[in-house]
C-alpha cells in the first residue's frame, strides 16, 4: 500500500553548540559542504536565536514550543521529571498523534541524571518517539525505557569513547576540553557515528510504508571537548585560521554574566595555540557535516528527497574566545545566542529556494513549522509561528537564569534583539529576593551594525536613551502578549 504523499516526511538535524557562522556559506574558512548544499536549495534564516543559551532549557523550549519562563525549565538542572509534568504535548508526541511514525536518534536532554538530581523521582519515557536510540551513560533515572542505548548495544565502543572524553571533565567544558586533541577512535566509530548508523538503518528498513516519518538526529558535537577524529584537522591550514577579534579592553566590563573562567588560561596561550582551538572546533563542524551528509544522501538514494521537509539547527552557539577569551555559552551575546537555521525540501514557497531570510526567527518557531507542514492544528497560544509563513514578531527574545550548576537559581537576564540593536536587562544575585532589589538592575545596549562584537555598552549613554526606551517597551510588550496567550483557560474566548 502506497502512503498518502500529501503529508511530507520531516527530518530535524540538530548539532550541539554549533555557532551560527560555522558554515561555509557564511564563513568560507569552514568546510560544511552538505549543509551548504542544503542551504542552497532551501532558506537560511540569518538572524535565528535560541531562547535560552544552554542545553536543557533550550531543548525543552524547542520541543514544547514554549519559552523557558513558560514551561518552567530555565537552567541546566531543571527538567520535567515525568510526562505528567510536561505543560503541553511535545513535538514528537504531537506528530505521533496525527499519524506520523516518530524516530529519535541522539541527544534530547530531557533528563539530567541521578548524579546531579538523585532526589527527584524521575520516570523517564521516550516522549513521543516510537523508535529511539541514545548514546549516554547507563542511569536508571535518565534512561528512556524502550530506547536502544550505545552503552549497552556497543559497550566496548562506548567505553572507548568515555575513556577518551574523561580527561576533559564533566560535559567536556574545561581548559583541556577547549584545547582538544586528535582522537584515536576512527571517524564513524564514536557516538555520532553510531547514532548515524541507527538513523540510516531506520531509513533503510525501519519505516512504516503507510505513514510519513519524523526523524530526529541530534549530535553532541561540536560541543567541547574537542576530540577530533583523525583526518579532519588535516582539512584545515592552521595559518589560514584567523585570530579571534581582540576587544579594546584588557578585562571584560561588568555585564549580565561573570567574567569567563577560562580567560586566564587563554591569555597564557600563544596565538598559534588559540588558533588550534578554533581549527579543532571547525574540524568537528566538518565531521558533523559529513555525518548529516550521509543521511541526506540516503534520502536522495531512496527517492525521498522531494517528499521530505528538512530543518537543521543547534540548541545554542559557542563563544569560541569572543569578547576577550570567553568560551562556551551561558550568556546573551551573539556568539552564544545565535544559531544556524536552515529549512529546505518540500514546502518551500516558490522562488525562496536558495535564499536567505532576515526575519527575527527563534527556536520556538520550529515546532509550529513542522506541525504546520504536517497538516497539524494551529497553536495560537504558543509564542512561535511557522517559518514558512510571514514574520510574526518585531524582535527576538532570549532569557538566562544562570548555568544551572549554582547552588540556588540566579536572578534572570532578558534579551531583546533586532538586526540593528540588542538590549539586555539583568539583576545580579539570586532570584529569591530579586523583587526587593529592582534598583540594582543592570542594562546593556549594543549597536549591532557599528559594533557587531558587542564591545561597547551604550546603555548609559544619553545619546541613546530614546533607543533604549523603545527597545525596553518592545521587550515588555512582547512578553506581555506572549504570556497573555499561554497558559489560558479552554473556556475563554479564542485568540
Write the layout of secondary structure elements.
Blueprint (H helix, E strand, L loop, with lengths): L8 E7 L17 H8 L1 E4 L9 H10 L3 H4 L19 H7 L3 E6 L24 E4 L13 E2 H4 L1 H11 L9 H5 L1 E2 L8 H16 L6 E6 L8 E2 L34 H5 L3 H31 L6 E7 L7 H4 L8 H4 L3 E5 L9 E3 L8 H8 L22 E5 L12 E5 L3 E6 L15 E6 L17 H21 L10
Parallel strand pairs: 1-7, 1-9, 2-11, 3-4, 3-7, 4-5, 6-8
Antiparallel strand pairs: 2-10, 9-10, 12-13, 13-14, 14-15
Helix content, binned percent:
25-40%
Q: Count helical runs.
A: 14
Write down the Rg. 22 Å
Query: How do the strands of the widest beta sheet line up side by side?
Result: 5-4-3-7-1-9-10-2-11
Low-confidence region ranges? none
Tell me the number of structural domains.
1
| Fourth-tier CATH superfamily name | Alkaline Phosphatase, subunit A
Query: What composes the largest sheet?
Result: 9 strands, mixed
Q: Kindly state the mean pLDDT as a whole number?
A: 95
Task: Give the amount of beta strand, in percent.
Answer: 5-15%
Shape: globular
**What is the name of the CATH class?**
Alpha Beta
Number of strands: 15
- How are helices and strands ordered from N to C? EHEHHHEEEHHHEHEEHHEHHEEHEEEEH
Amino acid at each position: 500500500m502506497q502512503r498518502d504523499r500529501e503529508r511530507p516526511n520531516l527530518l530535524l538535524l540538530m548539532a550541539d553548540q554549533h555557532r551560527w557562522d560555522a558554515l561555509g556559506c557564511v564563513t568560507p574558512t569552514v568546510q560544511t559542504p552538505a549543509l551548504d548544499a542544503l542551504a542552497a536549495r532551501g532558506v537560511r534564516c540569518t538572524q535565528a536565536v535560541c531562547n535560552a543559551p544552554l542545553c536543557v532549557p533550550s531543548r525543552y523550549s524547542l520541543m514544547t514550543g514554549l519559552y523557558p519562563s513558560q514551561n518552567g525549565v530555565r537552567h541546566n538542572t531543571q527538567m520535567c521529571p515525568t510526562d505528567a509534568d510536561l505543560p503541553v504535548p511535545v513535538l514528537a508526541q504531537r506528530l505521533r498523534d496525527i499519524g506520523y511514525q516518530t524516530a529519535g536518534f541522539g541527544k534530547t536532554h530531557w533528563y539530567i541524571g541521578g548524579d546531579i538530581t538523585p532526589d527527584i523521582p524521575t520516570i523517564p519515557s521516550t516522549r513521543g518517539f516510537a523508535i529511539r536510540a541514545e548514546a549516554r551513560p547507563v542511569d536508571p533515572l535518565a534512561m528512556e525505557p524502550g530506547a536502544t542505548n550505545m552503552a549497552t548495544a556497543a559497550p566496548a565502543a562506548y567505553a572507548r569513547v568515555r575513556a577518551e572524553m574523561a580527561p576533559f571533565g564533566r560535559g567536556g567544558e574545561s581548559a583541556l576540553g577547549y584545547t582538544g586533541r586528535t582522537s584515536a577512535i576512527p571517524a564513524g566509530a564514536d557516538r555520532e557515528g553510531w547514532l548515524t548508523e541507527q538513523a540510516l538503518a531506520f531509513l533503510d528498513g525501519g519505516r512504516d510504508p503507510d505513514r510519513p516519518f519524523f526523524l530526529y538526529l541530534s549530535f553532541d558535537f561540536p560541543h567541547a571537548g574537542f576530540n577530533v577524529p583523525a583526518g579532519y584537522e588535516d582539512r584545515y591550514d592552521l595559518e589560514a585560521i584567523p585570530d579571534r577579534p581582540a576587544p579594546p579592553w584588557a578585562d571584560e566590563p561588568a555585564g549580565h554574566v561573570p567574567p569567563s573562567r577560562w580567560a586566564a588560561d587563554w591569555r597564557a596561550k600563544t596565538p598559534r595555540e588559540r588558533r588550534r582551538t578554533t581549527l579543532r572546533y571547525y574540524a568537528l563542524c566538518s565531521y558533523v557535516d559529513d555525518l548529516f551528509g550521509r543521511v541526506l544522501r540516503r534520502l536522495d538514494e531512496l527517492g525521498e528527497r522531494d517528499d521530505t521537509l528538512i530543518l537543521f539547527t543547534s540548541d545554542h552557539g559557542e563563544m569560541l574566545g569572543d569578547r576577550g577569551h570567553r568560551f562556551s555559552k551561558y550568556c546573551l551575546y551573539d556568539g552564544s545566542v545565535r544559531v544556524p537555521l536552515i529549512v529546505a525540501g518540500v514546502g518551500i514557497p516558490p522562488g525562496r529556494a536558495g535564499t536567505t531570510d532576515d526575519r527575527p526567527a527563534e527556536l520556538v518557531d520550529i515546532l509550529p513549522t513542522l506541525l504546520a507542514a504536517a497538516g497539524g492544528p494551529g497553536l495560537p497560544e504558543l509564542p512561535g509561528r511557522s517559518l514558512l509563513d510571514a514574520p510574526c514578531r518585531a524582535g527576538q527574545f532570549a532569557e538566562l537564569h544562570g548555568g544551572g550548576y549554582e547552588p540556588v537559581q540566579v536572578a534572570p537576564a532578558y534579551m531583546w534583539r533586532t538586526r540593528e540593536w540588542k538590549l539586555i536587562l539583568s539583576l545580579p544575585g539570586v532570584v529569591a529576593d530579586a523583587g526587593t532589589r529592582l534598583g540594582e538592575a543592570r542594562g546593556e545596549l549594543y549597536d549591532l551594525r557599528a559594533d557587531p562584537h558587542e564591545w561597547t555598552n551604550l546603555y548609559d549613554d544619553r545619546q541613546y536613551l530614546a533607543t533604549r526606551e523603545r527597545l525596553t517597551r518592545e521587550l515588555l510588550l512582547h512578553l506581555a502578549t506572549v504570556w497573555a496567550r499561554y497558559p489560558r483557560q479552554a473556556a475563554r474566548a479564542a485568540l
